[in-house]
Amino acid sequence: MATMSASCSLILNSSSSSSTLNQTRLVKASINIPSRVAHISIPGLPKGVLEVRKLSPVTTQNDGPDPVVMAKLYAIFEAVADRVEMHSNVGDQRNIWNNLLLTSINSIILAAATMAAIAAIATGAPAAALKLSSTVMYVAATGMLSIVNKIQPSQLAEEQRNAARLFKQLHNQIQSIISVGNPTVIDVKEMMEKVLALDKAYPLPLLGTAMIEKFPATVEPAVWWPERRRKQSRGNTGYNGWSGKLEEEMREIVGVLKIKDEKDYLRLGEKVLNLNKFLAVTGPVLTGLAAVGSALVGTPSHGGWAVVVAVMGGALASVVNTIEHGGQVGMVFEMYRSNAGFFKLMEESIEAGEESVAAERSCSGGCC
Length: 368
Fold this sequence. Notes:
By secondary structure, this protein is mainly alpha-helical. The chain has helices at residues 67-121, 125-151, 153-180, 185-201, 244-295, 303-326, 329-364, and strands at residues 3-8, 29-34.
């Protein structure tokens, strides 16, 4: 039943016929009555005493979050949580690959060098068997080294660790937005762009065009954030809290980041990259030479030099492989790229703030 609020003033005057006392009583009451009986007259009550005033309907504002926006944000939230787990598992897997391949290749190389040395002093069928086995093992080690040096398992593991860390940060950001409440479509779009940027920066494929180039021609900072867009001013005429002195300080900070911090990490990354290129080429070359030397062991014309090449080539290849993959040179290179990317992100954030301040000043000056 529809109800309305009514104010009723009931004035009852009762006079006593007593000669000594006249009393007047005033009774006021506020009641709620159904709308269908609002116009019913009460017998004995003078007209105009009962006054019914209709109140305007009360409108309530729903300040809660948009269910559609919340559903989209929760979907992104769950996807990001899944990515954190996936990249962590893949990073652990590729780190295990690096350790297993390092141990296996070194074992094969050292075993082949030992067989070549024994074949040099053996005679007959055992010498031929040892020489053949040594040559096959060196050829296998050369192929394995070529593949491992191409994909760089230590660098792959570092990429996945960075991806897991950044996805975890994004997961915490989305959780904070949901906890604060009232997310908007802009928040959903921004989170989605960050997810896509991270997917592009740290892909999962080992080979192909999607894979990060392990030996680039030039060293560039890692970029895992979407393209910056100037945020429009939303009625803020305070220049976003930036004074002239603060702007000057921020410009100085950007200059230091570009000239010193980012440049230093890129320079170190270039040195590590050159070292990694040298080691990646040297290892297979040494095992290939050792395979040739092992095949020539026991020949009258090259027997002496062949043993030296087979044994020394294998020993040096084992050392080179240990330095490259045991020292995780690829991981160090990726770490420098990531650090340079962090400083580049700071630079872009400060520059975006300066552009926002300039835009607000232009708008306040009547240029909008």
